[in-house]
Amino acid sequence: MKKQIALCVMMAIIILTLIVVVFDKPSLSTATSEELLAVYGVGEHRLEQIQEFILDNPNATVEDLRIIKGVDDMIIDQLKERFR
To answer: Is the confidence at residue 20, as pLDDT, over 70?
Structure first.
């Protein structure tokens, strides 16, 4: 019985660790220039706009970036895949 409980606990820890590693996305506020430039449609100018917005709004979500002119659904969808 103790072996079964220990096994269940170990499996739960492994599963939770995998969930955190696989599903945890970095915050938009910690995105590097390189990470943002890797998004199709984000060039130097748009990068500057996004970084300025993030500096002014450190708790901004990806959805909040919609107010930046030129940040369209395609860019938002790609950013959502990479950041929270």
So the answer is: no
pTM check: above 0.85:
no
* H or E stretch covering 14: helix 2-23
Domain count within the chain: 1
Q: Residue 70: which residues within 8 A CB-CB, separation 6 or more?
A: 46, 49
List CB contacts of 62: < 8 A, sequence separation 6 or more. 28, 76, 79, 80, 83, 84
In sequence order, the 6+-apart residues with CB closer than 8 A to the CB of 79 are 28, 39, 62, 65
Q: Which domain holds residue 56?
A: 26-82
* Residue 65 and residue 79 in contact, taking contact as beta carbons nearer than 8 Å: yes
Please indicate whether residue 15 or residue 33 has the higher confidence score (pLDDT): 33
